[in-house]
Amino acid sequence: MDLSTELRKRGGIARVRTLIAAGVSAHALRRAKESGQIRTIRKGWVAGADADKRLLGAIRRGVVLSCLTVAERQGLWVPQRGLIHVAARPNAARITVPKGVVVHWSTPIVPRDPDAGEDCLANALALVAQCQPVETALVIWESALNKGLTDRALLSGLDLPPAARAVLDQATPFSDSGLETIFVTRLRWLNVRMIPQAWVLGHRVDLLIGDRLIIQIDGATHTGAQRTIDIEHDAQLALRGYHVLRFSYEQIMERWPEVQAVIMNAIACELHLA
């Protein structure tokens, strides 16, 4: 069995016993070390020159990437990026990590594969719920549900900690972006019906409040031909008695009180009613 192929399957890092079980000979491993093709990074572990650097750092220290870091690597909508999050066993020996790394000492909900340097999504989501503010956790959970990377039925069957169970109780798979989740979460106190990704006049809208108030969130794609389509749809909505409010990423994330005031005034004027 080809050593390079087996290493590539595992992100460039693997346990020696796993490689041998896959058919790589001890002779091939020895030759690869002598030639510099692979190097020992920890007792029983080897890595190639193109190994994933974050996985490499985690495995060297006997931890796994988890929490926000796994969410980022899975392509989920993470409001703020920066620190690297890893998970370690509760009974693990003292672990030294560089500045900028957060260690979660936790028992995994789903058993961790001994060959993995990265937590499964369920374990990562559980840590997100315990590590992050509820709004941030909800954004990430709904992003995972929306992308189909997990589902409520699977998560409901797990022995989730209270914080994760609370997030699951609120999460839905309908928000197409984290901004939509933020909108619904921050306005839930209004006790008005809100439908993310509602289908109105042949197009999806980001959020329908009540019967007639439509919220559209303008991101980087709302330019050129897309912008023309949006304007045409807005006109058709207006002709049929809908009220469209558009907000940018910057308004929602940096100037939320202004956005909320506009929504509150619109509802006070009953623009959300048929």
Automatic annotation (TrEMBL):
Coiled coil: none
Positions of the DUF559 domain: 192-267
Pfam annotation, one family: DUF559
Ranges of residues in domain AbiEi antitoxin N-terminal: 3-44
InterPro entries: AbiEi_N, DUF559
Keywords from the named record: Endonuclease, Hydrolase, Nuclease
One Gene Ontology molecular-function label: endonuclease activity
Gene3D superfamilies from the UniProt entry: VSR Endonuclease
Keyword hit for Translocase: no
Full protein name: Very-short-patch-repair endonuclease
